[in-house]
Design brief:
Elements (H helix, E strand, L loop, with lengths): L2 H11 L2 E5 L24 E9 L2 E10 L7 E3 L22 E8 L1 H6 L4 E2 L1 H11 L6 E6 L9 H5 L1 E2 L2 E2 L3 E2 L1 H9 L3 E6 L17 H8 L3 E3 L13 E7 L7 E11 L11
Parallel strand pairs: 5-7, 6-10, 7-11, 11-12
Antiparallel strand pairs: 1-14, 2-3, 4-12, 4-14, 5-13, 8-9, 13-14
Helix pairs in contact: 3-5, 5-6
């Protein structure tokens, strides 16, 4: 039996679960809201073309208006000034969008401090416990933040100082960008940077370091609590928008149904 036949059989038998990590995309899905005078993207809106009516008696379809960076979405290098000469979404090699997932679980720390930042020592400690990051991997930051996704105010968690959501320090972002094994970084929050990232040096360091190093981000993930520390395979499926700086994406994980989750494995 070939490797692909074995995979198909495992999917059919339930030995491998397909876990959907995507936030459903609607007009109510929280999106990033920048302060004035900065411009903002739009969320999702549907305009009916026909709905089993005179305009189309046997079919229904809609025109879709949506920002590239709405809901669960991919950030491509050209999204940021450090990667402006890099790849747009359509130019990212498909194999970079499928790879091993490694989960760093800081749910308990984030519950105590919503401004919690990952530092280089957190990545190094993870590797001491679980081994080196595998080739072409996606680092997934588990925070429990997706539990807030049903309420936009709770999800953004903003006050006069701006949003308070977990992320990565400048040193941590530089460490991620410098690790040759990493293809991307995924989060449960609205963006790949912390809510207070505008106060860091450089500002928005995950965007700055990762996208400038031809690495990618994916945001607004859900069901991360169903992933093991290691062993899952991530599949990120953006629209191949020509020249696109990002794209709403469906994100899946292939998970051994006998494996425990990150929290059960003591991540």
């Amino acid at each position: 039996m070939s490797v692909l036949n074995e995979l198909t059989a495992a999917l059919s038998s339930g030995a491998i679960d397909v876990v959907d990590l995507t936030t459903p995309l609607s007009g109510d899905t929280p999106i990033l809201n920048l302060p004035q005078p900065l411009a903002n993207t739009v969320g999702l809106s549907l305009t009916p073309v026909s709905n089993f009516d005179d305009a189309g008696p046997a079919w229904a379809w809609n025109d879709v208006t949506v920002g590239e960076h709405a809901g669960t979405h991919l950030d491509a290098p050209v999204h940021w000034i450090t990667g402006k000469d890099g790849k747009s979404v359509d130019q990212i090699e498909p194999h970079r969008l499928v790879g091993p997932a490694v989960v760093i679980d800081k749910t308990a720390a984030v519950a105590q401090d919503p401004d919690f930042l990952l530092e280089p020592e957190h990545f190094e400690q993870w590797q001491q416990e679980h081994g080196s990051f595998p080739e072409n991997c996606w680092v997934i930051f588990r925070t429990g933040w997706s539990a807030r996704g049903g309420n936009a105010a709770d999800f953004m968690n903003a006050d006069d100082a701006g949003p308070h959501t977990p992320g990565v320090s400048a040193a941590g972002a530089k460490w991620l960008a410098g690790n040759a094994s990493i293809s991307g970084f995924g989060v449960e929050t609205v963006g790949i940077d912390a809510g207070q990232a505008a106060t860091l040096d450089p500002m928005f360091p995950v965007h700055s370091f990762l996208l400038g190093a031809d690495k990618y981000g994916v945001t607004s993930l859900r069901n991360v609590d169903r992933l093991p520390v290691t062993g899952a395979t991530l599949v990120v499926a953006p629209l191949p928008i020509v020249g696109g700086t990002g794209s709403p994406s469906r994100v899946y994980a292939l998970v051994d149904s006998t494996a425990g989750t990150a929290s059960e494995q003591g991540a």
